[in-house]
């Protein structure tokens, strides 16, 4: 892989890639071709000349693919020079592994000029069976002519002296959502100036977190990769940049595994009073294996607790369950690694068994009612009532809250009273006591009771909506989700907590209002723009106020207040400049971000009338882009507020640049309006206020000054100039080139479309013939007519006779006409696929001679009906009209046989195989001609078609085989 470039670089296996506009590496040998440029070094080397190049042009020098099996080092010399001592560009080095992506550079140099040749090292830790390729890339810099050269590339069989070598980077496997950490270990001395990072396969770099020196020959770095949110496999490598070069490790894989989850719920095998037999069904999973642990999680459907048991057998028994209780059972699977337990699988819901008691609890009554609890009392019962040694007494209650029905069940101890806690205040509750055992249960009569009121819950934070304006805020909210009674009052407290305007006095921006229960909105006025207010809302019942809820809403910023301008003349005015006075604007809610001077070209017809409506300019357009964008205005200057602390003059057209905008001289051949606008930006809002300072009218040196209306505008208008500027000439050339390129592209697309259509038609040609063959039968009439006309040419007379319709059909017809010295054939049909293509559904044939006309009269039956007007004699020529033979057919789906009668004893034309079935049908109906002779020639009895075809007279034609089949 090394090369001294004394011979041609291709002898070393090197290659170059042609860059943009011919920007590429060249082999230079000053010993053979001396140069007078002092910036060019002496010797033989590879070099690029960045003089006269645009920024960003790239040229690549590719080394041969290296398959190293031991520790090695690549060193090279580079040289950057220029005549004016400015950097000619940058030199980057890439290492592409296994033909993968090029990625980001592992070493680069830019912004410097070297003092002679400088040596750099590359410590690449990629070994066989993997291979890699080193790529030198030079990038030009506009306006910085110079040279970038590379020489003496060597592949050394020993470690690099200055560039650290990385040890093998190990693969890392983590589960989804867990932290992934790579440990980069390198041999060499660590320096605080060294830059060490983690580079991904696609080129994205990740900075390191911790670097630790192991000993005087080793140091390590730890990198955390946060991209483990989903299942994936990606590659990373460690890169270090030191003073002497760069080191690159091998690529290691980051494998993110998804914890497993069962696809199906567990299978229920048996049910008892206190046990359940289940089968986990953990063979089909979603996620990654291997599975190292199976667990069963079960809970009651009405409870909030859950238990987990380890499963170590194909079937598992859940025991010590409560009778007559519904359980929800799920399976948990775990794979190796932290966070390897997947979410529970689909649930299996089942209930244990029990028997029916004699009756339910009796004499149930409520002895104490409070806001959130009820105390029940009932008549005690014994074994005779329960009918089971183990039984449960439950209370089942329900209520409707926010138009939703809630039900719950609680287990009661075997006593005569029970306090039901955790209820909702001011709620109508329906409850029953249920006595259950392993075989059934019985319930008591239903009780209906209402709990007392309590303080309400908080107002829903998500229901608080604020409609901010510049000096007021409209706030609306919804009642608490838990009213716990009847709402009587709302209390809203507000105060200003901060403003974007440092000069704002917020001491008086506070207050408190009360609203009735049916008033859930309020408009707060008298607020300051660009200020954040804190609103605290709480509701109350007869029990008192509930917990408060606080939210913050900010008013919108206002446009800066422009100062008033008098009607005095400008300070100075020339043909190309106007000097105006600029005054600072007053901020309203947010500081002024920037001031802008806008020059707008006025049309001649608009210059005669002073427009009273002034629109501000929200889209910045520079002078150079105004012509290409066809914009009537451009930004002449942009000033920071620090540049305009006090009133000061400004000259429009002074040919200077202000914050990137060129203040171009004004054209003496145009009329202009000069605008001064102030812009405030805060919280994603942009407010603009502007004023027209002066108007320069073509043909007179007079400037008009107006007071500023406060407007917000995003509009733009079109500029049309009578004078042709150089920029517009260049734009016209660019536009013409674009039009030509567009026309060429259109022609290429059109040719491609025609080629595609042609291929599709060829693809459907076979199907088209099969579907359209029946419709072509009418063509045989034309060819038979032509054949008979030749045989009877000497005997037939030229008498012309009108031929009537030979056959008719239901819908469409095709005319076959004989015209002197002309032949024509036309057809159209639609196949079953819906494509319209030429087909023989309808056709017309024209004969050449009058003899063929008489032949047609003898071959077909001639109609004696009245001749149409088109067939009458032409009085101007004194000739007979041309006879017309009309044969009507249908399109593909309705092609009908053509009815014809053949005269007895005359020669019959040849019949095509495709027309054979139709011909047989016609001949069976006719009386004068048929296949009688051919049938009589066949032997009696059943004969196979292949035997008939083997006869000598039938060897060259498979006619009888087709007839029999």
UniProtKB/TrEMBL annotation:
<keyword id="KW-0597">Phosphoprotein</keyword>
<keyword id="KW-0378">Hydrolase</keyword>
<dbReference type="Pfam" id="PF00041">
    <property type="entry name" value="fn3"/>
</dbReference>
<feature type="domain" description="Fibronectin type-III">
    <location>
        <begin position="360"/>
        <end position="454"/>
    </location>
</feature>
<keyword id="KW-1133">Transmembrane helix</keyword>
<dbReference type="Pfam" id="PF00629">
    <property type="entry name" value="MAM"/>
</dbReference>
<dbReference type="Pfam" id="PF23144">
    <property type="entry name" value="Fn3_PTPRU"/>
</dbReference>
<dbReference type="InterPro" id="IPR013783">
    <property type="entry name" value="Ig-like_fold"/>
</dbReference>
<feature type="region of interest" description="Disordered">
    <location>
        <begin position="941"/>
        <end position="965"/>
    </location>
</feature>
<keyword id="KW-0732">Signal</keyword>
<dbReference type="InterPro" id="IPR057598">
    <property type="entry name" value="Fn3_PTPRU"/>
</dbReference>
<keyword id="KW-0904">Protein phosphatase</keyword>
<dbReference type="InterPro" id="IPR013320">
    <property type="entry name" value="ConA-like_dom_sf"/>
</dbReference>
<dbReference type="InterPro" id="IPR036116">
    <property type="entry name" value="FN3_sf"/>
</dbReference>
<keyword id="KW-1015">Disulfide bond</keyword>
<feature type="domain" description="Ig-like">
    <location>
        <begin position="164"/>
        <end position="255"/>
    </location>
</feature>
<feature type="region of interest" description="Disordered">
    <location>
        <begin position="791"/>
        <end position="812"/>
    </location>
</feature>
<keyword id="KW-0393">Immunoglobulin domain</keyword>
<dbReference type="InterPro" id="IPR000998">
    <property type="entry name" value="MAM_dom"/>
</dbReference>
<keyword id="KW-0677">Repeat</keyword>
<keyword id="KW-0675">Receptor</keyword>
<dbReference type="GO" id="GO:0004725">
    <property type="term" value="F:protein tyrosine phosphatase activity"/>
</dbReference>
<feature type="region of interest" description="Disordered">
    <location>
        <begin position="705"/>
        <end position="728"/>
    </location>
</feature>
<keyword id="KW-0325">Glycoprotein</keyword>
<comment type="similarity">
    <text>Belongs to the protein-tyrosine phosphatase family. Receptor class 2B subfamily.</text>
</comment>
<dbReference type="InterPro" id="IPR003961">
    <property type="entry name" value="FN3_dom"/>
</dbReference>
<protein>
    <recommendedName>
        <fullName>protein-tyrosine-phosphatase</fullName>
        <ecNumber>3.1.3.48</ecNumber>
    </recommendedName>
</protein>
<dbReference type="InterPro" id="IPR036179">
    <property type="entry name" value="Ig-like_dom_sf"/>
</dbReference>
<dbReference type="InterPro" id="IPR051622">
    <property type="entry name" value="R-tyr_protein_phosphatases"/>
</dbReference>
<dbReference type="GO" id="GO:0016020">
    <property type="term" value="C:membrane"/>
</dbReference>
<dbReference type="InterPro" id="IPR007110">
    <property type="entry name" value="Ig-like_dom"/>
</dbReference>
<feature type="domain" description="Fibronectin type-III">
    <location>
        <begin position="262"/>
        <end position="355"/>
    </location>
</feature>
<keyword id="KW-0812">Transmembrane</keyword>
<feature type="compositionally biased region" description="Polar residues">
    <location>
        <begin position="705"/>
        <end position="723"/>
    </location>
</feature>
<feature type="transmembrane region" description="Helical">
    <location>
        <begin position="736"/>
        <end position="757"/>
    </location>
</feature>
<feature type="domain" description="Fibronectin type-III">
    <location>
        <begin position="455"/>
        <end position="561"/>
    </location>
</feature>
<keyword id="KW-0472">Membrane</keyword>
<dbReference type="InterPro" id="IPR029021">
    <property type="entry name" value="Prot-tyrosine_phosphatase-like"/>
</dbReference>
<feature type="domain" description="MAM">
    <location>
        <begin position="1"/>
        <end position="162"/>
    </location>
</feature>
